[in-house]
Design brief:
mainly alpha, elongated
Length: 372
């Protein structure tokens, strides 16, 4: 009877019918108090309902009846993790690792706990063991890259991020890191392919396309950069950064379109000013609304902020994703900052030398220096 009730409880638990699962778990425990599977089922139900302290008691009772019950030991570790008893959780998983040497789930939990406990050296060691068990897991490879990057080892970080990208080329965080890495190492041509892939994955994010255009500029391909900015302007006609770059590029290249883009820039900045004023007046009215409406607004803002989050690395590059402030002056401000940082100074050429002042222009030539 206890075994049948245990099986029914487990099946109902898998079907997410918690009430029925709890009922049969109680039947199984009442029939046989020393049944570790029944006690584990009961603990799982309590864990699902959020009663972690009570769940831990049932898991420990199951282990007292059968010390080889790996399910109870693993779930007890997870329960301690939820209770922020990290050392106890680590102890559970280390014991379990002694029993299940090749369990990737157990090794991952140990590595994750060391990371939470701020021991990156141990976390890296355990992740290396995990890679030997699941060598093609892109998330584990990316985590290794992240830890090495935090430790300042860029070459190792690049190796694991690149391997992660090779197995799963659609992880936007990995793509972004690789693009920024090539920018920092002054290989902008290689960064372009990563930003292009990011633009395919997130076509509504203008920052990727601005980064592509800036890479072309830094590599000296000004015509390609201009074409890219024009395409961005067609897709995002109200993007101020793009218009600023267009005005500056057209000015530098001596193109006639400069006045057209300057006029559009002034118009967009004026529209942004008006929009911000409307938002300010609307927010002032919103403060007078009821608390229910306020809570809803806060929820929407947090969701929006989470959706638009970018990594600190790309955020630190000015101009890629940070909007310019609306211009308060009536004159057109076509100044801009390169999203990828200052450009490397090009070598001096003979043409440049001709316009420089002659250091000896004011000195008189002696008779001995005149030609015969």
């Amino acid at each position: 009877k206890s075994a049948a009730a245990t099986n029914l409880s487990f099946l109902y638990f898998l079907e997410n019918e918690i009430v029925q699962a709890d009922s049969y778990a109680d039947v199984a425990i009442n029939s046989d108090r020393y049944n570790p599977a029944a006690l584990t089922n009961k603990a799982n139900i309590l864990f699902t309902s959020g009663d972690y302290e009570k769940a831990a008691e049932f898991f420990k009772e199951a282990l007292a009846n059968d010390s080889s019950c790996t399910e109870a030991l693993y779930n007890l570790g997870l329960t301690y993790k939820r209770l922020s008893r990290l050392e106890d959780a680590l102890d559970c998983f280390l014991k379990l690792h002694a029993i299940l040497r090749n369990s990737s789930q157990v090794v991952y939990q140990i590595a994750n706990l060391y990371e939470i406990l701020e021991d990156p050296g141990q976390a890296i060691d355990w992740l290396m063991q995990l890679i030997s068990l699941v060598p093609t897991d892109s998330q584990v490879l990316a985590k290794l890259g992240e830890l090495y990057d935090n430790e300042g080892d860029k070459s190792q970080a690049f190796q694991y991020y690149f391997e992660s990208y090779r197995y799963f080329p659609s992880n936007i965080d990995v793509i972004e890191w690789l693009g920024v890495y090539y920018i920092e190492t002054q290989f902008c041509e290689k960064a372009v392919q990563y930003f292009e892939r990011a633009a395919l994955i997130q076509p509504s994010q203008v920052k990727w396309q601005l980064a592509i255009a800036s890479c072309y500029r830094r590599s000296g391909n000004y015509q390609k950069a201009l074409d890219t900015y024009k395409n961005i302007h067609k897709k995002f006609p109200e993007n101020v950064e793009c218009l600023r770059f267009l005005v500056r590029l057209c000015t530098d290249l001596g193109l006639k379109e400069v006045q057209e883009y300057a006029t559009k820039l002034k118009k967009v900045e004026k529209m942004r000013e008006m929009r911000e004023q409307r938002v300010k007046s609307g927010s002032a009215r919103g403060r007078r609304e009821g608390s229910a409406g306020s809570d809803s607004g806060q929820s929407n803002q947090s969701t929006s902020a989470k959706g638009e989050r970018v990594s600190a690395k790309l955020r630190s590059l000015p101009g890629v994703n940070e909007p310019y402030e609306a211009s308060s002056n009536k004159e057109i401000d076509a100044s801009y900052v390169d999203p990828l940082g200052p450009q490397i100074e090009r070598p001096k050429t003979a043409a440049k030398k001709r316009v420089e002042e002659d250091d000896f222009a004011d000195e008189e030539l002696g008779d001995d220096l005149l030609p015969d």
